[in-house]
Amino acid sequence: MRKVLILLGLTALTPAVARADIPHHPQAEAQALTLAEKAIALRSVAGPGNQTPQVAILFRSALIEGGFQAKDITITPFGDTAYMIARWPGSDPSLKPLVLSGHMDVVEAKPADWQRDPFRPVVENGYLYGRGATDMKLDATIVIATLSELKREGYKPRRDIILALSGDEETAMETGKILADKLSNADLVLNGDVGVGILDEKTGKPSYYSWEGAEKTYADFQMTVTNPGGHSSEPRADNAIDRLAAALLRIQKYQFRPELNALSKNYFTNAAQFQPANIASAMRAFAINPGDRNAIATLSADPALIGKIGTTCVVTMISGGHALNALPQNATANINCRIFPGHPRSTIMAELEKVAADPQIHFTDVTQGSVETEASPMRPDFTQAIDKAMHSVYPGLPVFSGMSSGASDSMWFRSHNVPSYSISSVFLRPSENFSHGLNERTPVASITPAIDFYLALLPDLSR
């Protein structure tokens, strides 16, 4: 009852994200918050003491309490982590399953750096604080609470609904690949990890909702220069660190060809109305002509937008030399790239080699846990269902596609040609998105509309 009162009180205090015309589901709402608090308290971080398996056990217990059969839920240990598959059998086994994807692990967080202990969840001023509040333990518990609510309401899916939660999405991403391999016969995947509703910075009212049907390919390329070296008292023109530095500056100044796909064009066209005039004009111009130099310059100057207009590469780590009084015998740098869908990593590495323009610099692809994928299609059944579900919660709210600049488990499903769409249902102000950062938090008032959204969406896509 305490959680129900907290939720109802916060909803009443936050009209920007509450709708009086939509019936609420207090049991599901309270369960989502309580379960999220318990999950956040478990330090599911890669390495010694990883408690991701305990998160899986917690979620399994919640699903069984919500009506799932124990035999339909499996937790599989993998190294220091684990992954989970929970199946809700449908009435027609000939239909391909609907997969709900997510992850149970979180990014490391050091309590000394935070205002609050990241693994001691707390609700303050209408926000749930803690590592995983946004990415993505609350999203996972909202899905679990929704599935339990559907079972209480007597819903019977025609196709199987499968909840697939990985255990190392924030690091090696190996369990996500395993899940995708096992579930490669899925009809489509709904990933709660990315995609988010946007609240207006000033009013706190919902501005728009953007789901994501593509993501850029993650890549790491190592640049290495070797040299005989020598005594530092006898400088030479050929210096490994100097060569590396010069090449890095050439790469810094280089811009890959800006480009569009159907998803990003739809994003720029629709999201422009929510931007300042100069950004809006550039977004519209770029959507019409991705070669527009003025539009490219404007969008490239915005860190939140440059990643949406093409491939980006940036140096993230450097090392070199072996002694303070010796010429360097080697120097290395890591170039991290986020590659626009449709380009192999090898093509981008070859382009970087041309930009570096130094035959003494050796490039190596050292990428781990990533695969190149094309964008998912804008399937009419999916786009219509998500529009309908979101509009049942927020009538008239703009809903459109987008593309993620980061990586998620969706790439593993897309590598099997299974359409995957990122549809996190929480709403945030852009300035309050602290995923991977300090003092991560999410409005508690997001829970009610998120559950209503899923209650409308899942029956549409599991029939």
From TrEMBL:
Residues 1-20 form the signal peptide. Keywords: Hydrolase, Metal-binding, Protease, Signal, Zinc. Transmembrane segments: none annotated. The keyword Manganese does not apply. Residues 214-359 form the Peptidase M20 dimerisation domain. The keyword Zinc applies. InterPro entries: Bact_exopeptidase_dim_dom, Pept_M20A, Peptidase_M20, Peptidase_M20_dimer. Belongs to the peptidase M20A family. This is M20/M25/M40 family metallo-hydrolase. It comes from Acetobacter musti.
